[in-house]
Design brief:
Helices cover 64% and strands 8% of the residues. It is mainly α. It has one domain. Strands 1-2 form a two-stranded parallel sheet. Helix 3 crosses helix 4.
Length: 99
Amino acid sequence: MSSKEILNILKDEKQRKPLEEILQNYIEYLSIGIANFARICSSDIVTIGGSFVHFQDVLWDRLLQELDRIMIPMEKEKVTIRLAILGNDAGIIGATRIK
């Protein structure tokens, strides 16, 4: 399936309903990973790229809500979560600049 086909399924509430548990687990685990990364690296900004950007319309708000739930207040004030400007191409562009 293409990203566009998956996105269409996720946008359709009726088709998405059977996938809710999988989506919730994905968001929960991604949030834990982001929070742990921010803690370990003492990062002020965490940027999310890759294929996540294809699904930002459906998943972005859920991710921010879950991060808000699991991060302590001091972390929430310190860490900014953003989507990569280059989206899914960030890794490709970065790899071409390495010699």
